[in-house]
Amino acid sequence: MRVSARKIKTLLLVFSIVIGCKSNYTKVTKTEQQEVSIEKVNNNPVIRHIRTADPSAHIWQDGKVWMYTSRDAEDAVNYNSMDGYRAFSSTDMVNWTDHGEVLHSKDIPWGVPGWMWAPTAIYKNNKYYLLYPHSVKGSKDDMRCGVAVSDVPEGPFKDIGWIAGVEGQWLDPCVFTDDDGKTYLYWGVREPKMALLKDNLLELAETPRSIAYGAKNFFEASYMHKYNGKYYYSYNAGLGGFYAMGDSPYGPFEYKGAINPKQRQDHHSIINYKGQDYFFYHWQGWNEGSKFRRNTCIEYLYYNEDGTIQEIYATKEGVQKIK
């Protein structure tokens, strides 16, 4: 069948229009993809102007996220030089206000310079408290669990002593208040312990007890949070974060496995903010970090239908800004 030159010209015109439309569509799609990727910037580590570690995240009465961290020295070759806790706040999880140093070893009359390791925080009795491990004489074996108080979340905090009956190695305290107002302290290295605290936060209300968590891989950094009526006891096993679940803040807890398995230096905290769960941790791998020069990072946290936690992996992308 012969096709006239006029028909061929018409067909070519239609074909070029179709190709042109498809090309334009592709360009729009690419443009849209570029716009999306622009939004997904690398937000880890979240604090870059100084070295921070051991992030203890909380949502206080002002509706902001508050984060209290320890501080690594830029020239550190061990952890003994860690000195001074820092407070940060945010309303969008990306932009953080640095409120400066809130407590320093020079403000602690019973301790030595340095040795200010992982802190925890709590709002109770209409005041803000920092609980922290600190060395009396300059050894990891003579740590105490100090307590400091402030009328405002940004500090400064004033030391008011230590909790009797909580001594030993670096402790890594975590404080947790249940729905009934009772407050519990979790601590320990290699052997996790816990006890109910008196309301003054300076005394134990009971004899400390060991934590049954269904495994034998605990190393440090106890953490407790609650979700849908279940209690989640998590910790660092020396090879990343692991966790167990239970029906009571005392346990016993059923071991569930890894939560953050790839980050050797996992020391985490968990919050729910504006309907999204977040996982705070420190990491040495970015921002020219090292084992003793760490950086605070944040990832999204997700639960499965049965309440277990989906494994978390460190990303440079981190979390995106809340609009």
UniProtKB/TrEMBL annotation:
Regions annotated as coiled coil: none
Entry-linked InterPro entries: Glyco_hydro_43, Glyco_hydro_beta-prop_sf, Glycosyl_Hydrlase_43_Enz
CDD domains listed in its UniProt record: GH43_AXH_like
Gene3D superfamilies, alphabetized: Glycosyl hydrolase domain, family 43 (2.115.10.20)
UniProt keyword Hydrolase present: yes
Record-linked SUPFAM superfamilies: Arabinanase/levansucrase/invertase
Entry annotated with the keyword Hydrolase: yes
Keywords: Carbohydrate metabolism, Glycosidase, Hydrolase, Polysaccharide degradation, Xylan degradation
Protein family membership: Belongs to the glycosyl hydrolase 43 family.
Name the UniProt record assigns to this protein: Glycosyl hydrolases family 43
Species annotation: Algibacter aquimarinus
